[in-house]
Design goal:
The chain is α/β, with parallel strands linked by helices and 364 residues long. It is 41% helix and 17% strand. The protein binds nicotinamide-adenine-dinucleotide (NAD) and 2'deoxy-thymidine-5'-diphospho-alpha-D-glucose.
Length: 364
């Protein structure tokens, strides 16, 4: 459904950062298929995780502009705010992989903390006048449930749970959240922070659990499971995440944090077995659990994440629509239908990273 009545029929300029990555590219596609009244400016540095193939179908749309650049580049970010008179920011740009943050934390502090601060400053400069902030503007920070730390067997993260990040990645995201909150507390800048659980779906880089397992299984490589595989994550289908951000952008109460979860908690080993069973039944019946290889545990590995998403349900009427059974089927089928995408993205530096992470024993 196309919706025309955003911001009184005036075109609004939405700066999406990190829009060539997994969630950002799904979000841009979602927004442009739903609304006519947005012009999206996608600012992305195109790191290893950024891929313009994700947005090929939008390349020639008149209400979409891609800019290659770094959110840490003050001059460029200020220039974009001036040139496009940006109304809204949705900040996805980040170094997003926990294992990489353990290997090389510095870039996580640069992009996730300093980059976010830079965007906040540019937005403040552009949006603030003598009377305060102009009416139609908002900064949405896309954060993560990992800022809350780890749960035991029971309980859930609420928006009031204290921040207790454990990895360099989650510490950098928590720092960014505090900066965003401080711009509301100090300057009354219109912001929202969203904290979601593990996303899955099309276009996810195959260093993350689900696409890594799909790619390895399709290539008959071993499936590395950290520790004993009993760690638990909550899985959110990416399109459901996009619909939640859409609602927060339009209806989220200024200054609020919203948790977004999938109601789909699973042990990692269950996820791996689900992937194996699907590929065994639908692609190649020689793929079986023999491929599972228990490897050294991730350092500081959080035991369990579980989201209480009752606030966004009560305040904005959002609930995830996709069951895990549906979502995983759609996701694996997408990778099967897009083998070329998978093959392109796993060429280049991927092999070096994989070898560093898992060694040669896992059949790169
Ligand atoms: P991703 O790694 O797939 O994509 C990140 C994108 O940011 C890439 O396109 C990359 O090129 C770009 N980028 C990196 N550094 C940049 C910089 N300095 N300037 C401009 N662009 C830069 O990440 P994702 O999985 O799509 O995650 C998007 C956001 O959502 C991140 O902020 C992440 O912390 C958050 N998040 C992700 C998940 C998840 O399960 N994937 C869950 C919770 C929160
Ligand atoms: O919870 C939200 C977070 O989810 C996001 O903020 C991060 O950006 C995103 O990367 C993701 O972090 P995780 O560390 O939970 O995701 P990952 O896919 O790396 O790992 C999921 C679980 O699977 C975790 O317990 C580690 C385990 N794992 C992962 C890989 C890559 C394995 O057992 N083997 C693997 O090879």
């Amino acid at each position: 459904m196309l919706i025309d009545n955003v911001n009184n029929n005036k075109t609004s300029f939405l700066l999406v950062t990190g829009g060539a990555g997994f969630i950002g590219s799904n979000f841009i596609t979602y927004m442009l298929s739903r609304y006519n009244k947005y012009h999206i400016v996608n600012l992305d540095k195109l790191t290893y995780a950024g891929n313009l193939e994700n947005l090929k179908e939008l390349e020639n749309k008149s209400n979409y502009t891609f800019v290659k650049g770094d959110i840490c580049d003050k001059e460029l970010v200020n220039l974009l705010f001036n040139k496009y008179e940006i109304d809204y920011v949705v900040n996805f740009a980040a170094e997003s992989h926990v294992d990489r943050s353990i290997l090389n934390p510095e870039i996580f502090a640069d992009t996730n903390i300093i980059g976010t601060l830079n965007l906040l400053n540019a937005a403040k400069k552009s949006w603030e006048g003598k009377e305060g902030f102009r009416e139609s503007c908002k900064f949405i920070q896309i954060s993560t449930d990992e800022v809350y730390g780890s749960l035991g067997d029971t309980g859930f993260f609420t928006e009031l749970t204290s921040l207790d990040p454990h990895s360099p990645y989650s510490a950098s995201k928590a720092s960014a959240d505090l900066l965003v909150k401080s711009y509301y507390d100090t300057y009354r800048m219109p912001i929202n922070i969203t904290r979601c659980s593990n996303n899955y779906g099309p276009y996810q880089f195959p260093e993350k659990l689900i696409p890594l397992m799909v790619n390895n299984a399709l290539n008959k490589k071993k499936l590395p499971v950290y520790g004993n595989g009993s760690n638990i994550r909550d899985w959110l289908y990416v399109e459901d995440h996009c619909s939640a951000i859409d609602l927060v952008l339009h209806n989220g109460r200024i200054g609020e944090v919203y948790n977004i979860g999938g109601n789909n908690e699973r042990q990692n080993i269950q996820i791996v077995k689900t992937v194996i069973n699907f590929i065994n039944s639908n692609v190649d019946n020689s793929i079986d659990e023999e491929l599972v290889t228990y490897v050294e545990d991730r350092k500081g590995h959080d035991k369990r994440y579980g989201i209480d998403a009752s606030k966004i349900k009560k305040d904005l009427g959002w609930e995830p629509k996709t069951t895990f059974e549906e979502g995983i089927k759609k996701t694996i089928n997408w990778y099967l239908e897009n083998k070329e995408w998978l093959c392109n993205i796993t060429s280049g530096g991927y092999k070096d990273y994989y070898e560093k992470m898992y060694g040669n024993g896992l059949g790169v």
